[in-house]
User: Fold these one by one.
Assistant:
Number 1:
Amino acid sequence: MFSKKFYSYFILCIMLNFSFAFAAQLNFFTNENDWLQATTGFSIRESIEMNAANVALADGVTGPVQVDDNLGNPLNFQKANTGLSWNFEITSLQAGSELIFEERFPNSIAVGDSSTGFNDDEFTVDFSGNNLLAFGISIVNNDASSASQPDFFQIFDENGTLLGEISGTQIPISPGNVAIFLGVVSDTSIGSIAFLENALENVDIRKLQFSGEVGTVPEPGTFWLLGMVVAFGCFWKRP
């Protein structure tokens, strides 16, 4: 017959294993109004457009920003300058490329300059600050995403672990200056996103939107673990 101490350790180990395996819950959106509706319960809801005035707020960028200006790479936006609740950094993933204040599609940032051979317009956006639980991005000039040549919209937690993604035909086409929206709502804090494309596109970033809560919130598995500990303590009786 095992002792009560053995059973208590055994149950605690089970609870720890379940808490580590607790999967994040993600909801993806391609309709901006639906995403906005899904974020109404959060205390912070903010956005920033990539117009000349806002782009000039990035570290190392001197205004006024002109059409076709090279902005460097990566591009860091500090919340002290933007007035937002998060710092964020936009990075073009193609080696040697820079972010460009767009000429063809007004008020947007081009990921690389296609005229100089930088056509691989993959990028990341990293966040720091408060607890980011929802993110939305409007992009233009994303003219191809299919099952055979898919784009990927990926979401990562603060430790760089992939939480989920959508790809291929789940991502709308945005020919020319027509913007599309990609959004996500998560029950786990978002640390970064990535947009990975199929070959030879010219994706431009027009608007970013953020939603969440002040401070940090424990992971869902932590809530589950604490609840189980409390429940275990309620029925356990000392001999």
Number 2:
Amino acid sequence: MKNGLICYLTTDGRDRLVRLARQFTAVTFAFHDMSSGELPDLSRYDIVGFVVQHDGPGLPAPLLDFLDRLPPMRGINAFLLDAGLEVPSGALLSMAAAVKRKGFRVVSGHSLTLEEPVRFPGATLFLRFIENLDTFLSGEPTTPLPQPVH
């Protein structure tokens, strides 16, 4: 079993994150509030998730401050989840760029609108995101893409 850390900024606490983490079978997750001012030892983890809940333009200052205070990373796998009442266009790409600049290897990302009901139309896509990320983390081979015929 692999170890992961979910670094989060959320206004509604850890409950949703705990439910999210329970969906993974290949990783046991710990949690870190990025607004706490403390820096976790990321060398203990196989993957780091960055979960941000925001509704304004640009990336939240606590996320940027947290990344600025981290030492350079060397290819630690990371996944991103951008959630909010209205996820700003391009926010996930901006978050990926900020995390990559620090030296993380972004392996997956997803944007999710929290106001949608439990059975929202995008639920299938979100569950596919979790399933694909879990498969990646388990080290199981994925179905190769078809190769072009020459």
Number 3:
Amino acid sequence: MGVIRKAASISTLGLINFRSKAERLERLEGELANVESERADLAERVDVVSKRATKAELEAIDNAKKARRAKRRARKAAGIPSATDVADSAINMSRRQRRKAERKAKRAAKKLGDVAAPVAEAVS
């Protein structure tokens, strides 16, 4: 394309442009098409990654819910009173009885940790 222009460009040491405006425009349009297709591909990848991240986040929330439920069921099955039950009963007691209740709650929490550990592993 444009052999005369190319020869003139070489003979004038670049004084005349090697490529015509039409050639430059054609090349730039090709590059623009490539860039637009790459941008579309990247946008698609971003969508896929964001969907995957959202799915993972929702799954983590669901697993945490299941773990809480399993822990509550394990506590109920073991016959361990909840923290609110212990606190309510402790309010109505004397100091000595309150200390006893606190120790009992501490032991129950320790026992709960031993009971809930296998359940938490099973859920995850």
